[in-house]
């Protein structure tokens, strides 16, 4: 009976996390498009603030260019976050004592590793669709084309930095759960607190791991990282190219995701 209850609770967490992430991404997706372009190969062409660049892209390529590849991204994100939340809460259910920050960090890294190994091919195709490198009509078509041309190596390109980047969601969940426990013990945890804590947690994780995210994006896109390392020698800030757009997109997306996640978990 206890096992079935834990399985049900884990499934609820996974569904809530997947739903929250999809809603958050759908709302702030144009910033993700901008981030992808700045990270890969268009930093020299795009100058100005994030808002200015979004207006520039809309004027030059049409408003729909800001939502290019949205459907496959939402499909991949729902799968990815379901796997992550399910793995994370399954691992936490095995602990006999109360959870700690270090336990959350360890479980977050294990859940992130499982997620990367399962869903990496989906993100390879998504990155290429957002950059309009290939005119795939669906994820399935993209997966088949990459496999045909590049084999398994192409589908799992960027997996090594992605595995290193499991520290990003691990740090995010560690900070989020630690702050949540403190606020709940003080009786102050509500929707506004969930939004603020989610934003702080994601901002912390993003800033600490951003250079690895930049390398990951270039590998997913099939772009060489050699020019990036060359530019870094003369201008170290190159490793933080696109950080503003990344922070705006991921922080707001994560904050909204955690609000929806908490509301759905409490509701169910």
UniProtKB/TrEMBL annotation:
<dbReference type="InterPro" id="IPR023395">
    <property type="entry name" value="MCP_dom_sf"/>
</dbReference>
<dbReference type="GO" id="GO:0080122">
    <property type="term" value="F:AMP transmembrane transporter activity"/>
</dbReference>
<feature type="repeat" description="Solcar">
    <location>
        <begin position="8"/>
        <end position="94"/>
    </location>
</feature>
<feature type="transmembrane region" description="Helical">
    <location>
        <begin position="12"/>
        <end position="31"/>
    </location>
</feature>
<keyword id="KW-1133">Transmembrane helix</keyword>
<feature type="repeat" description="Solcar">
    <location>
        <begin position="189"/>
        <end position="267"/>
    </location>
</feature>
<dbReference type="GO" id="GO:0015228">
    <property type="term" value="F:coenzyme A transmembrane transporter activity"/>
</dbReference>
<dbReference type="InterPro" id="IPR002067">
    <property type="entry name" value="MCP"/>
</dbReference>
<dbReference type="InterPro" id="IPR052217">
    <property type="entry name" value="Mito/Peroxisomal_Carrier"/>
</dbReference>
<keyword id="KW-0812">Transmembrane</keyword>
<comment type="similarity">
    <text>Belongs to the mitochondrial carrier (TC 2.A.29) family.</text>
</comment>
<protein>
    <recommendedName>
        <fullName>Peroxisomal membrane protein PMP34</fullName>
    </recommendedName>
</protein>
<dbReference type="InterPro" id="IPR018108">
    <property type="entry name" value="MCP_transmembrane"/>
</dbReference>
<dbReference type="GO" id="GO:0005347">
    <property type="term" value="F:ATP transmembrane transporter activity"/>
</dbReference>
<feature type="transmembrane region" description="Helical">
    <location>
        <begin position="106"/>
        <end position="125"/>
    </location>
</feature>
<dbReference type="GO" id="GO:0015217">
    <property type="term" value="F:ADP transmembrane transporter activity"/>
</dbReference>
<feature type="transmembrane region" description="Helical">
    <location>
        <begin position="66"/>
        <end position="86"/>
    </location>
</feature>
<feature type="transmembrane region" description="Helical">
    <location>
        <begin position="243"/>
        <end position="261"/>
    </location>
</feature>
<dbReference type="GO" id="GO:0015230">
    <property type="term" value="F:FAD transmembrane transporter activity"/>
</dbReference>
<keyword id="KW-0813">Transport</keyword>
<keyword id="KW-0677">Repeat</keyword>
<feature type="repeat" description="Solcar">
    <location>
        <begin position="99"/>
        <end position="182"/>
    </location>
</feature>
<keyword id="KW-0472">Membrane</keyword>
<dbReference type="GO" id="GO:0005778">
    <property type="term" value="C:peroxisomal membrane"/>
</dbReference>
<keyword id="KW-0576">Peroxisome</keyword>
<dbReference type="GO" id="GO:0044610">
    <property type="term" value="F:FMN transmembrane transporter activity"/>
</dbReference>
<dbReference type="GO" id="GO:0051724">
    <property type="term" value="F:NAD transmembrane transporter activity"/>
</dbReference>
<dbReference type="Pfam" id="PF00153">
    <property type="entry name" value="Mito_carr"/>
</dbReference>
């Amino acid at each position: 009976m206890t096992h079935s209850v834990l399985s049900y609770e884990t499934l609820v967490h996974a569904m809530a996390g997947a739903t929250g992430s999809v809603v958050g991404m759908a709302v702030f997706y144009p910033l993700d498009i901008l981030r992808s372009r700045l990270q890969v190969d268009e930093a020299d062409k795009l100058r100005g603030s994030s808002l200015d660049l979004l207006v520039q892209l809309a004027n030059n390529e049409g408003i729909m260019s800001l939502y290019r590849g949205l459907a496959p991204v939402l499909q991949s994100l729902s799968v990815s976050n379901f796997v992550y939340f399910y793995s994370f809460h399954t691992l936490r259910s095995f602990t006999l004592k109360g959870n700690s920050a270090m336990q959350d960090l360890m479980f977050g890294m294990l859940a992130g590793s499982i997620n990367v190994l399962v869903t990496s091919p989906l993100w390879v195709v998504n990155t290429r669709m957002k950059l309009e490198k290939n005119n795939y009509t669906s994820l399935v078509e993209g997966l088949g084309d990459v496999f045909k041309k590049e084999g398994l190596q192409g589908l799992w390109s960027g997996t090594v930095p992605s595995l290193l980047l499991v520290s990003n969601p691990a740090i995010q969940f560690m900070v989020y759960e630690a702050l949540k426990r403190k606020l709940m013990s003080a009786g102050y945890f509500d929707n506004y607190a969930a939004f603020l804590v989610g934003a702080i947690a994601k901002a912390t994780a993003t800033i600490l791991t951003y250079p690895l995210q930049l390398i990951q994006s270039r590998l997913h896109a099939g772009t060489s990282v050699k020019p990036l390392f060359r530019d870094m020698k003369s201008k170290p800030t190159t490793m933080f190219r696109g950080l503003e757009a990344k922070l705006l997109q991921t922080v707001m997306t994560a904050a909204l995701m955690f609000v929806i996640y908490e509301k759905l978990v409490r509701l169910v």
